[in-house]
Amino acid sequence: MSTELRNYFNHELGAEPWKASDLITFFHAQRTGGSALRHLLGDALGKERVFCTQFVSDFQHWEVVPAERLLEKTVFAGHSNFQRRDLGRRLLPISLVRHPVYRTFSLYYYCKKYPNQFLHHLTESRDLQAFYAAASAKKPNYFHNVCCQRICGKADFELARTTLERDYLLVGCTERMGDFVQVLFDFLGVPRVEVDQRETDHDRYKQHLHLTDFIETLKRKNSEDLKLFEYMNRTYFHIDEYLYP
Fold first, then answer.
1. In the chain, helix, strand, coil percent, each to 5?
2. What is the pTM of this model?
3. Pick from 97, 108, 113: which is nearest to 133 by CA?
4. What is the 8-class DSSP label of residue 200?
């Protein structure tokens, strides 16, 4: 199967070759693999050409960053929501999506690992379920329907789907990061890189899959992201459905 068939790739947008004046805009939902992608792009294109928190000291989000700050950039990448803007150049949005249950599991372990993470204190003496209860009450937009919000600006599957299929160049799946990077790098005309094969989220988090009531709560709270992921998987990713709760 072509890697393009395991991602969403807009052939109409992609038919026009990449130009140096184009800008890739990466709308990054937390815990979907985007931090790794930023570093891969920085290595391939040069960190000075990627506008993101890792490579600029005074990052600004998409909706407020002035066009002139992006003039010498090839990529904008951030935890920003999609918004149409006229910068006088071709804009090519991309994004990654992840099953919302596994994204929540990943958030717990990420917050637990890094003491400087703003929700780290809520992991202390709390298991996954207790952390979610406390952290999602404190920061609901960090936990609920984030992929839809990044892709279209709202927690709305139908709007995310139509925005994605009209405006986006490429959307991939966290568990197929290697395929996503290959398609993106081929379009940009830069050498492909080897991306470590991830274990499936099913295998990574199998110790939590018995928490059926909790999983149903996460699916209900993330109903728009769940519809988005299931649609994308059924239509583009083609990953075995039994791997998802």
1. 50, 10, 40
2. 0.95
3. 108
4. P
Please tell me the distance from the alpha carbon of residue 189 to that of residue 202, in angstroms, as a whole number. Answer: 34
Element containing residue 22 per DSSP (H, E) = none
Cβ proximity of 181 and 8 under 8 Å: no
Contact partners, residue 181, CB within 8 Å, separation at least 6: 37, 40, 192, 193, 195
Rounded Cα–Cα distance for residues 107 and 132 (Å): 9
Q: Which residues contact 135 (CB under 8 A, 6 or more apart)?
A: 107, 111, 119, 122, 142, 143
pLDDT digits (tens, 9 = 90+) for 38-91: 999 999 999 999 999 999 999 999 999 999 999 999 999 999 999 999 999 999
Nearest of 26, 1, 3, 35 to residue 186 by alpha carbon: 3
